[in-house]
Amino acid sequence: MLADMRTRQGFTLVEVLVAVVLIDIGLLALVAASAVLVRQVNAFRLSNVALRAATNRLQQLGTSTCAPASGVSFGDGIREVWSVTLPSPRSLDIQDSVTITVGASRPVVVLHTRLPC
Length: 117
What we know:
Blueprint: H1 2-6, H2 13-62, E1 69-75, E2 78-88, E3 91-100, E4 108-116
């Protein structure tokens, strides 16, 4: 009877505990990685919103008259500061800075272009 117990197939309690600990560590690593990915996707989304706002402002200012101007606009967590200068009588220098504030994240996009008058 003693010989039958030694030839039985199975796992010891120590082996099962080690396997459970390793699986737990792997699952915790997956959860941490997914949290990082969610933060990265949110930061990219906010940067994309800021980039679209700055691009729209540059297009709007590029079609206006050749005169110096500046402004600040606020709304929905977006702060935009823009300026138009005339470095020469034949060109416009346009700069737009967009900051989005959502929680602790504050992506900033700055676009700068020079257009002919």
